[in-house]
Amino acid sequence: MKNNFPKIITMLSLLVVSWACDNGFADIDVIDTPPKITLGSITSGLTEEEDFSIAVTLDDGTDDGAVSSLASLDYTITSEGATVASGSEALSGDQQTVTITVPGGFDAGTYNLDVVVSDTNGNTATDNITFEVASAQPDFDITGTWVVEPVAASL
């Protein structure tokens, strides 16, 4: 038994040392998600030459243990593959609503709006919406009943 006593003490010491290395602070998973984009309804600009406007609501998402805030928003509006409008805006805070406005609007046709948002941790999110711009209506009313009447000199 005397010969085993040093071995038992050594094993217990190693066990205590290994327990001491884990000081109760387990590894924690850091959750850092990209920002969230919510594209609102297009409030104007669905008729040609009308100012285009849409509200975009942004939220930085979850960053447990990794403090970040919104950093930037970039947008591009294209038609048939060609860029017709673009822009960017510096952001701050965890939540923000940005209104994208294009004065003068667009010609009639199909358009695509792409939005890219990034936060200060380098996470990015994208969203897009396709919309139709209709032709402007004439300034006068041509509806109703049309009557063709002969002109006196035409007979």
From TrEMBL:
Give the domain of life. Bacteria
Q: Which UniProt keywords apply?
A: Lipoprotein, Signal
Q: Does the keyword Lipoprotein apply?
A: yes
Which residues does UniProt assign to the signal peptide?
1-22
What is the name of the protein in this document?
Putative lipoprotein
Q: Which organism is it from?
A: Algoriphagus marincola HL-49
